[in-house]
Amino acid sequence: MPDRAPVAAPVPAGDPAAAFARHDHARCAATAREVTARACAERGLRLTEIRARVLAILCESHAALGAYDVLDRLREDGRKAQPPVAYRALDFLVVNGFAHRIERLNAYIACGHPGDDHAPAFMICRSCRRVAECAAPAAAAALSPQAAAMGFEIERVVVEAEGVCPDCRASARETGGETGA
Amino acid sequence: MPDRAPVAAPVPAGDPAAAFARHDHARCAATAREVTARACAERGLRLTEIRARVLAILCESHAALGAYDVLDRLREDGRKAQPPVAYRALDFLVVNGFAHRIERLNAYIACGHPGDDHAPAFMICRSCRRVAECAAPAAAAALSPQAAAMGFEIERVVVEAEGVCPDCRASARETGGETGA
DNA sequence: AAGTGCAATGTTACAGGGTAACGTCATGCC
DNA sequence: GGCATGACGTTACCCTGTAACATTGCACTT
Ligand SMILES: [Zn+2]
Ligand SMILES: [Zn+2]
Ligand SMILES: [Zn+2]
Ligand SMILES: [Zn+2]
Fold first, then answer.
1. Burial B117-131 (b: 16+ CB within 10 A, else e)
2. DSSP-assigned letters across all residues of B158-173
């Protein structure tokens, strides 16, 4: 499902709420690609053609894409790509903080703050698969005391909220039915 | 990897830290099964033979088991079970709050507070796959303001911390090497 | 220029996780 | 008996992910 009209911009493109609100998505996507390219240049990382293409595919919308969705898109370009091609590019983007894996969906999204070192939390719409990336250091921090108490060393925290986005709630209300697609 | 010696009980069996500490696991497992059985009786849920068996399998250790691990165990009983048999039993347990799915691992554990309505967070050892279930309402609550601000309706929050448990940290130190198995 | 090393990509083949769909069977109710 | 319901049995898939190895291209050495 495509995002809503990417014309007006009542919400700035970097805002977490952008995923579920009207915003200038062309600018949103272009910024993400440019910032990532710059970060790669600064850090000596090679943003190869395939990697850049996969990032562009993820940037096309705020919906999470499965690795095989990405693979299909690569094949539409005329490549005869096999699964490892998609997975390797996705791994590169995730490891370097330019994309995120959504565990709940086994899927991927472009990062909203590429290059920055951040502790993201995600709001996942179970109806349209769009995902908003929020900063929620408090959520992860809440676990530290308990981890320390039991001697557990935390390396990474996954925080994913599943629910229904404003658009899909509105759609459900119109049809009077459930919140499904 | 089996749990450590289930003899002494420096930690009470219901404690979140039990997953990574010496405790009376026989008692720990028996309690989980009994509480679940009682909750089913009270609520008119049918804890059938297969469901009870799957719960017992999950209760055998604090390590997360994949659906196919559970299936293999069912087959060892002499059943000729197919995947849906395991998935249906696991779904029953998860939906009714007697087990949890660990998204990060695509795997399952028995619930530490079966029947109670709770907002669990998990500490997952990436080395031995054991999982501690903690109560961390603060982690989920930290997302509410942002969700409200963007009109997102949260239905469920996944909080999973990945890291290394005390035992595996100790093992790594002994061998001077990395924290792998 | 030839040789060497490394990172990225191409390709095959498979393992692991999950479900739709349909048939069967037992239970309980009218 | 007739019927609805919920659980289980079975088949046949689809989606997700990776090990392993061949190849390419580029940078750096000699
Ligand atoms: Zn956007
Ligand atoms: Zn939505
Ligand atoms: Zn135990
Ligand atoms: Zn461990």
1. ebebbbbbbbbbbbb
2. EEEEEEE-HHHHHHHH
Which residue segments constitute the domains of chain A, with CATH numbers given? 25-175 (1.10.10.10)
User: How many Cα atoms are found within 13 Å in the side-chain-facing hemisphere of A176?
Assistant: 0
pLDDT digits (tens, 9 = 90+) for B90-144: 999 999 999 999 999 999 999 999 988 889 999 999 999 999 999 999 999 999 9
Rounded to two decimals, what is the model's pTM? 0.90
Measured between CB atoms, does A178 come within 8 Å of chain B? no
Closest C-alpha to B130, from B84, B65, B43, B74: B65
| DSSP 8-state assignment for residue A65 | B
Q: Nearest residue on chain A to B149, judged by CA atoms?
A: A17
Determine contact: B143 vs chain A, CB below 8 A.
yes
B134 is in an annotated binding site: no
CA distance to B10, B42, B128, B133, per residue, from B4 (Å)? 12, 34, 12, 17
What tokens does A49 get?
């053609």
